[in-house]
Design brief:
2 copies of one chain form a homodimer.
Chain A (H helix, E strand, L loop, with lengths): L33 H19 L4 E2 L1 H8 L3 H9 L5 E2 L3 E3 H12 L5 E6 L3 H7 L2 H5 L2 E7 L9 E2 L2 E4 L4 H7 L4 E4 L3 H13 L4 E4 L12 E4 L2 H14 L24
Helix pairs in contact in A: 1-4, 2-3
Chain A binds a DNA duplex (30 and 30 nucleotides) through α3 and β2.
DNA sequence: CCGACTCTGTGAATATTGTTACAATGTAGC
DNA sequence: GCTACATTGTAACAATATTCACAGAGTCGG
């Protein structure tokens, strides 16, 4: 099943049609599960750290240990897109990273809008990791007339009325929604109408989007609440202070998160 | 299968042993899947909004529509814990909300520590929704000697050295980790040693905890990166501006998030 | 070049999660 | 009280996701 006969990793290619066609290499054979797509950025992040540490090669087992995921899962996930490894050796870190980045499209620059410029919106604008990873905040919107017109960094806060025209003009496909729950669905509808196809929602409500768009929800409250159940019900584990912490354990269930 | 013969919702009880024993009502018959536990807070949130709207009764179908989830899934999820509904009518909003809150244990107060008092830590301390839902920030820690000793609100920022003693003393079981990636695993280990059993991690790295503890990861960057794939690969959907937005659609896949 | 070892990619088996479909129960109008 | 209708809880089924396990390739030290 290996097609690259030998040679250095840098020459490894995925299949006949040298270099990546358009990403989603083997994605012809059926759809790729979303759950796989969601793990890819986590693999990419870990690979980035490995590269920074100067590690050249990593096996699915090692990577899995770092992430608390089984080696088989990593191999299977990657196999949706091609063959990136070498028997007996593992994966070349730089090569695999570049491939995963290309698959996800995160080797490109993505313009992003922020809707809602309260504390959270402001914090996100100044969150440097976004810029560092290619997400460029390019438009700000707020409902509040007092804020509209204000200048932040080199951006002006726009009114929601201007949203459709500006987003289309700038071909913005991604937005971060940081408005109160009450206005979130309405804002999302406006975004979709304006051509946005991916929304990161911070509002504490499930916002619905049509099937041709994507949304992810971030809510610390919900995350905390989903853990209290176990605090309340389990009563296991060493008493605090007893039991030395060697941390040989891997993640609870082989599931990320 | 219905045991409550009739009577008002307020009198409904789940089974013989009146009132909730310790939560996890029917949780004897095997373990409850984590994925179910994760949906519960979302149901609870929606029920809270319904209650605030003055709605008295809701069917699994209506609730499912609000959340983009199938009615059957909601019924199945709830059935792990008991029988809360009434044929022909649905669920009493107040009653179901109180039951779900009790199952999750979010009708209690939970003391929480914040580790890492940078911008994010500060923002979380002042995020009122946490307090409003019973999460009381009760201890702050930072690695930076310049910050240690400073007073914020009525809390003092403590050094990491003090963490074990303070957390045990205050019986703190939950923590929010808001430190840089480099220090996250070490900090988590310290938390676990100090008796913490649930961690909300904001550091951009997969932090591993032993099987008797829980962790959830929040990372906007990863969330955005998992959506670029679709922007990059799909090219479906109405062109922006065409196609009226009636929003009859429900969520893409019947999956939350 | 050999032999012992490592590690990938994947078919098959298993485990987990979600849906369908319906009996049982209750509602509501008259 | 009777009839038409709504809705639950769940068994059976279907679909998804994960792991097992191994053939095939490649490594590595001498």
């Amino acid at each position: 099943m290996q097609r690259h006969s030998s040679g250095a990793f840098a020459e490894m290619r995925v299949n006949a049609e040298d270099s990546i066609p358009s990403s989603a290499l083997r994605a012809d054979e059926g759809e790729i599960p979303d759950i796989v797509i969601r793990r890819l950025p986590i693999y990419a992040r870990s690979l980035k750290y490995l590269a920074e540490e100067g590690v050249e090669t990593v096996s699915s087992g090692e990577l899995g240990n770092r992430l608390g995921v089984s080696a088989a899962q990593i191999r299977r996930d990657l196999s949706y897109f091609g063959e990136f490894g070498k028997q007996g050796k593992g994966y070349n870190v730089d090569f695999l990273l570049s491939q995963v980045n290309a698959i996800l499209g995160i080797d490109k620059e993505w313009p992003v809008a922020i809707i809602g410029f309260g504390h959270l919106g402001r914090a996100l604008l100044h969150y440097d990791a976004l810029k560092a990873q290619g997400f460029r905040i390019q438009a700000l919107f707020d409902h509040n007339p007092e804020k509209v017109g204000q200048k932040v960094d080199n951006l002006v806060i726009h009114s929601m009325d201007e949203l459709p025209a500006l987003l289309r003009e700038q071909k913005i496909k991604m937005a971060i929604l940081a408005v109160p729950a009450g206005g979130a669905q309405e804002a999302a509808d406006a975004l979709i109408d304006a051509g946005v196809r991916a929304i990161l929602n911070y509002a504490p409500i499930i916002v619905q989007v049509p099937p041709y768009a994507r949304i992810r929800h971030i809510d610390p409250l919900v995350a905390l609440q989903s853990m209290t159940y176990y605090l309340y019900n389990d009563e296991e584990g060493p008493q605090a202070g007893i039991g030395r912490n060697g941390r040989e354990y891997r993640a609870r269930s082989g599931k990320l998160d």
